[in-house]
Amino acid sequence: MWWCLVCMASVLLGQAAWAGAQAEEPLADAVRTALSAAAAQSAPPMLVFADQMQKYEFDRWADAAGLRLKKRKPEEQVRREFLQTVWYEAKRAGLDPSLVLGLVQVESGFRKYAISSVGARGYMQVMPFWSRLIGTGDPASLFHMQTNLRFGCIILRHYLDRERGDMSMALGRYNGSRGRPEYPNAVFAAVRQWKLPETQARPQIVALRP
After folding, report:
1. What's the gap between Cα 113 and its chain centre?
2. Which residues contact 104 (CB under 8 A, 6 or more apart)?
C-alpha cells in the first residue's frame, strides 16, 4: 500500500524514530473506549471555548507553535489542523499541549509516517499492539492523525496515573526506559521550545465534541 512505501522511504533515508516500547498491559474499559472512539474521526476535532479569552489563549499558543513548526509542516492548513488536534487530545487527557509537542518532537520529529526499529508508528510512536484496541487490529490505523495523537495522549495519561503524577517515570514507561533519565530529559528539553510565557491563568476548554 502507499503508506508502506512512505514508511519504507523514511527508514531508507536514515530517519528512524527514537521510539520506545510501551508494555502491553490490561486497560480499564473507559480507556479502551476513549482509544476506540478516535478511529472513527475523519476530521480534526472542533474546539469549543467558554469565552473569547479562552479562544485568544489557544490562538496565541497555536500561532507561536505554528511559526516554530513551519519548516516541518509548510502547509498552513495542515499545520493548523495538527496543532488543533494536539490541543484537543492533550486537554482531553489532562496533559499540557506543549508537553505533547515535545514528546512528538523527540519520538518522531513530527513525521506522520515514522516507523521505529521496534515497529512503533506515527507522530507519538505508538506500538502496533495498541491497534487491537481499535477493533480492526490494523497497525495502519495508527498513521491516522487523531487516532495516533489520541492513543499517545491516553497512553501517557495512563502511565502518569500509574506513576502517581511522576512525569519522569511516566515518560520512562512510555519509552520503555523507566528509571533512566535520558529520555525524560530529552522530552523536557524539547518542551521548553514550545512553552509560552504565562501571562494569564491557563484557559480550559469547557466543552469538547467527541
Report:
1. 13
2. 86, 110, 123, 124, 152
pLDDT tens-digit readout, 10-55: 333 333 445 556 565 555 666 666 666 555 555 567 888 878 888 8
* Residue 131: CB atoms within 10 Å: 21
- Asked whether 210 and 33 are in contact (CB, 8 A), the reply is no
What is the tens place of the pLDDT at every residue in 54-109? 888 899 999 999 999 999 999 999 999 999 999 999 999 999 999 999 999 999 99
Q: Which residues pair with 208 in a beta bridge?
A: 47
Question: What totals of helices (H) and strands (E) does the chain contain, helices first?
Answer: 8, 2
Beta bridge partners of 207: 48
Tell me if 182 sits within 8 A of 170, measured CB to CB.
no
Angle at CA of residue 159, ends 57 and 189, nearest 5°: 55
Residues 6+ apart with CB under 8 A from 39: 134, 135, 136, 141, 144, 147
The span from the CA of 52 to the CA of 96, in Å, is 20
Sequence-separated (6 or more) residues with CB below 8 Å from residue 186: 106
Q: What is the DSSP letter of 125?
A: T
Short-list 97, 94, 73, CA closest to 85 = 97
